[in-house]
Amino acid sequence: MDTLKKQKNTIPFNYSSPVGNELQYIEQAVKSGHISGNGVYTQKCQQFFESKYGFTKTLLTSSCTDALELASILCNLKADDEVIMPSYTFVSTANPFLLRGAKIVFADSEKNSPNINADSLESLITNKTRVIVPVHYAGVACDMKKILSIASKYDLLVVEDAAHAIDSFFDGKPLGSLGHMATFSFHESKNITCGEGGLLVINDKSFTNRAEIIWEKGTNRSAFFKGEVDKYGWVDVGSSFLSSDISAAFLYAQLENIELIQEKRKTIWRYYHASLKPLFEKNKIQLQVIPAYATENGHLFYLICKDTMERTSLIAFLKNRGIHATFHYLSLHKSPYYQSKYKGPPLLNSDHYTDCLLRLPLYFSLTLEQVKFVVDSIYDFFGIKNESL
Ligand SMILES: *Cc1c(COP(=O)(O)O)cnc(C)c1O
Q: How far, in Å, from the CA of 183 to the mean position of ligand 1?
């Protein structure tokens, strides 16, 4: 009884639930007799992105990690070519380029946001630099105008890691449409999900043909099915990057409900932001800053604590009330795998987000009553009365 009650009152950090026809579409896919990759639902998902956001070409993959691997093959890197990315990101931003033999050059975050500091890029560029990988942290755009102008000045490729950034914009343009390529994630923790899934967006048409070949294990099977060649075979390197049509069926139902999902997530985000503002004004916490060129997409809500100790106590305080809040990335340049390889300068902003950033629960089925309970609990932690809303 007690444990049941406790479970009922628990607010997990994330919780995934169907919002529309997920189960019906999976059933339809199964009954159609075709559930391998590049099937009916895969095509529907790709068309959705191409028509809603104007992406030139998209390929559904089994994860964003996979999409980044596909992108890194397309970058055609030679050993020791350099790829610049923020240190404050997930391992999947770095691994695909390391697997191609490239050298990773970590950039610091901005002072006011975990995003890559575009002003630091020129000092990191050498004659070996080939690619910049901006990560739109929390779905908030990096300074793409600066990044794209530096990339064009030095003739570099830009691959946007847009894993967090579905349905978000830079100067009115959808994130994912700005770099030569971009990748999205449909992992359970993201706004739109199918458990595990991803998307490669190709904006530079010169990559399209090769992308389809690498996607289909190094064969020209896609061209064969489009009637462009009369037989298909092994024409290049590749791997199995396709997602099953069962996953695509789930994903398509989520995409059909994207407005509903986004509206709910943004409502929660705005409630957190507005009701915690007095704590920011009293200098207890820092809140996320959205630059004029960017939008928020309700992907994740974070606050910045004074120091690690305070963050640890706040996490414990909330946990005691059944609320699961959590920190985020550990700077990659300080990770057990990379620390001894790192030869660059200290990245103090990245370390600051590693130490002080705290994410609050945010998911579709979270009720505003629960959100209010989280906010009240944070006020209680600081011993301040919540008079916000
Ligand atoms: C989630 C995430 C990924 C990886 O996505 P998967 O679909 O789980 O492979 C890559 N980069 C960032 C920034 C992410 O948050």
A: 9
Same domain, 38 and 186: yes
Taking CB atoms and a 6 Å cutoff, what residues make up the pocket around ligand 1?
Answer: 63-65, 89-90, 92-93, 135, 161, 163-164, 185, 187, 198
Query: Is residue 172 within a helix (H) or strand (E), and if so which, with residue range?
Result: none
Q: How far is the CA of 93 from the centre of ligand 1 (A)?
A: 8
Q: Closest ligand 1 atom to the C-alpha of 189? A: 1
Q: Domain range holding 361? A: 258-382
Domain boundary pick from 232, 256, 280: 256
The answer to pTM > 0.90 is yes
Structure tokens at 127: 């004659």
CA distance 265 to 261: 6
Q: Are residues 252 and 303 in the same domain?
A: no
* 15 in a structural domain: no
Contact 274, 248 (CB under 8 A): no
Residue 330 Cα, ligand 1 centroid: separation in angstroms?
Answer: 14
Q: Which residue among 14, 65, 136 is best mutated to probe the pocket of ligand 1, counting the most ligand atoms within 8 A of its Cβ?
A: 65
Beta strand 181-185 with 198-202 is antiparallel
Query: Which distant-in-sequence residues (6+ apart) come within 8 Å of 43 by Cβ?
Result: none
The per-residue pLDDT for range 11-28, each reduced to its tens digit, is 999 999 999 999 999 999
Q: Which whole number is the average pLDDT over 266-293?
A: 97
Q: Is 369 helix (H, G, I), strand (E, B) or coil?
A: helix
Q: Strand, coil or helix: what is 221?
A: helix
Does the CA dihedral 341-111-90-200 come out positive or negative?
negative
Task: List beta partners, residue 103.
Answer: 82
What is the CA(86)–ligand 1 centre distance, in A? 14
Query: Exposed, middle or buried: residue 382 (CB in 10 Å: 0-12, 13-18, 19+)?
Result: middle
Element (H, E) at 40: helix 40-53
Report how far residue 201's alpha carbon sits from residue 119's, in angstroms, rounded to the nearest whole number.
26
What total number of domains does the chain contain? 2
If pLDDT is split at 50, 70 and 90, which confidence band does 389 have? low
- Torsions phi, psi of 271, nearest 5? -65, -50
